[in-house]
Amino acid sequence: MRLSIILPAHNEANTLPELVEQLISTIDKSLYEIIIVDDCSTDQTPQISHELSRKYDKVKVIHRKSSPGLGNAIKTGLKTARGSHILLMDADGEMRPEDVPKMIDKAKKGYDVVIGSRFIKGSKLVGYSRKKLVMNRLYNLVFAKFLRTKVKDLTFGFKILSREVVGGIAWEAEKHGIAAETTVKPIVKGYRAVEVPACWTRREKGSSKFHFSYNFEYIKIGVKGVYAKWMRR
Predict the structure, then answer these.
(1) Are 117 and 196 in contact (CB under 8 A)?
(2) Residue 19 and residue 7: Cα distance in Å, rounded?
(3) What are the b/e assignments for 34-70, b being 16+ CB within 10 Å?
(4) pLDDT, position 232
């Protein structure tokens, strides 16, 4: 396995150094590259990213100057990644590097999509708002049923995709909807997906980039996925 890690970063100067160091120290020889996608940042993220690339040979940096958005940043990273598998992970500190090795183990067993799940036995949520939890669980309950999948966390952006999945699907989401798209579309196409328990911890530094309006992108992706699934049948 050659694992490429994509870290989309919009104003994440406070979290990037520690996260990159933890990833490098936690992941074994499977780690091939870490791609920091600086998504139109206005803080010190560009400078810190370059410092990290000078310090670590496996760290690469891409600077985006227009069309900001999590989905656009990830799509840029996917076009650049050269690994056999690609890990998608936020740079805000809400996802734990300690969960990555068990995700790698599942990927090595032949799964096309390995999801770090917040909603299966062994997972943990720290500081997750009740309102967001209710909305998220409702979304997953409804769309998992219509997609005929046992996956319980369709909306978490913490996952490993095989090279076949990355190259075999046209990704469209521009904002946070990419988190659902990278799970829903592979399921619709019949790729093998599996979940491993993961911990989500509310960020301590910086501010969330999520806006309520992004929920409509999630719903659109879910509806299109269900339609595509039924058309395939």
Answers:
(1) yes
(2) 10
(3) bbbbbbbbeeebbebbeebbeeeebbbbbebeeebbb
(4) 80
The pLDDT tens digits for 114-170 are 999 999 999 999 999 899 899 999 999 999 999 999 999 999 999 999 999 999 999
H or E element: which one contains 62?
strand 59-64
**Following DSSP, what letter does each residue of 166-187 receive, concatenated?**
HHHS-----STTHHHHHHHHHH
C-alpha distances out from residue 230 to 162, 200, 203, 227, 233, Å:
25, 32, 38, 5, 5
Name the DSSP class of 97. G
- Measure the CA–CA gap between 30 and 152, rounded to whole angstroms: 27
Q: What is the CATH number of domain 3-232?
A: 3.90.550.10
Tokens of 44: 């010190």
- Cα-Cα-Cα-Cα dihedral of 137, 207, 18, 67, to 10°? 90
Q: Which two tokens stand for residue 66?
A: 């227009």
Which residues have a Cβ under 8 Å from the Cβ of 53 and sit 6 or more positions away?
Answer: 36, 59, 60, 61
Q: What is the pLDDT of residues 29-40, one digit of tens each?
A: 999 999 999 999
155-180 pLDDT per residue, tens: 999 999 999 999 999 999 999 999 99
End-to-end CA gap in the chain: 34
SS3 197: strand
**Per-domain boundaries in the chain:** 3-232
Q: CB under 8 Å to 123, separation ≥6 — which residues?
A: 117, 197, 198, 199, 200
pLDDT of residue 203: 76
